[in-house]
Amino acid sequence: MDFSELQLFFIATPNIIISLLAAVYMYWGTPSATATSNACIRYFSLYFLMLFAAFCSIAGRNSLGEFVSVTIVQCCIAVALVMLVAGLIHRRQMSVKQFILKRHVITLAMIYVLSEVILFTYIQNVIAYRVITAFLFSSAVYTVCLSLTVPSSQPTRGERWMNLSLYISIVCCLLLLCITITPAITQYWQVLFITSMAFVVNIFALFAGLHAMLLDDHVQLYKKASNTDPLTQLHNRRYFYDQALKMISLAQRHQDDICVLICDIDKFKAINDSYGHDVGDQVIVAFAQTLQREKRAEDSLARFGGEEFVLLLPKTNLNGALGFAERLRQAIEKTQVPIGDKALAVAASFGIASCSSANIDDSLKQADQALYQAKAQGRNRVMVYEPA
């Protein structure tokens, strides 16, 4: 069925405009701070750019011819959906190349394009069939994207927005399938117009979801950086204080024991003076890794500065904290830091105090006094704070 250039232009124009704006704003207007986010932005920009090319082909259908137009449209849609999935895969730091080169991915895309171009163009040239196939394929891809958007059981706000946009897109596809196969919609013009408006909603929803997700990733990255020690990748003092207030409050509410432990690398200044600050940094990293490996999942570990580290131990009394600190001390004693063809032994002293008050600073001062006693009594030992 032939349509005038004006009719086709009217059908495609809203999608041409919104997909081009989405591609441009996604590429230049989305903040990025890492190579991963840069790559995701490029994939998502290509997704909208492919949709832009598809609707340009629809607008120029009379000039290009039906076969060329259908071929371009379906190829662009297939590539666009692959770019969407590739961007989500890259965001999870998985191999996009392996995904794209998988045989079943390429086969699925080729079957879709060939069925659209050859089967429905030459064997059964019915626009409704092409629309049904396109939306079934799109719905299947959006369903896959749902599993890629949220990699954990605790989605971020941006991931929840992205999931919502995918649900909107799936519902839009399914509604259009129902509308397409009803007897009331029989005119080619009606089908194309409804499809065009559905894509407007689809493009806008996905752009909003992708942009919200990437923006939230950017915020989470800076939030993590502000709470993380750059050398050891442990939490820093700021994060520890935030967690300590919550953990102590929870312990007091349930009348649970909670202890704080301060540890300090013995003779660290001598290590720096003898071997240099680079070796000193290696010692700190090795020390931090040992603490991270030995602590429980519920414990809060942070680097307070220099060679000093702090652990908050929930549901642990002084005897339990003493036993845990002794195990840590023995594990650290076994730690060897390679320096050329030699290995540097590491030792540490520990101070423990019970968090009997809501003020974590009081407990830290008590644990620090116990640490000072451990240093004074020869280092490489554990001391518990005892009130005078």
Automatic annotation (TrEMBL):
Lineage: Bacteria, Pseudomonadati, Pseudomonadota, Gammaproteobacteria, Alteromonadales
Keywords of the record: Membrane, Transmembrane, Transmembrane helix
Pfam short name (any one): GGDEF
Cross-referenced CDD domains: GGDEF (cd01949)
Protein name: diguanylate cyclase
Superkingdom of the organism of origin: Bacteria
Residue intervals of the GGDEF domain: 256-387
Gene3D superfamilies the UniProt entry points to: 3.30.70.270
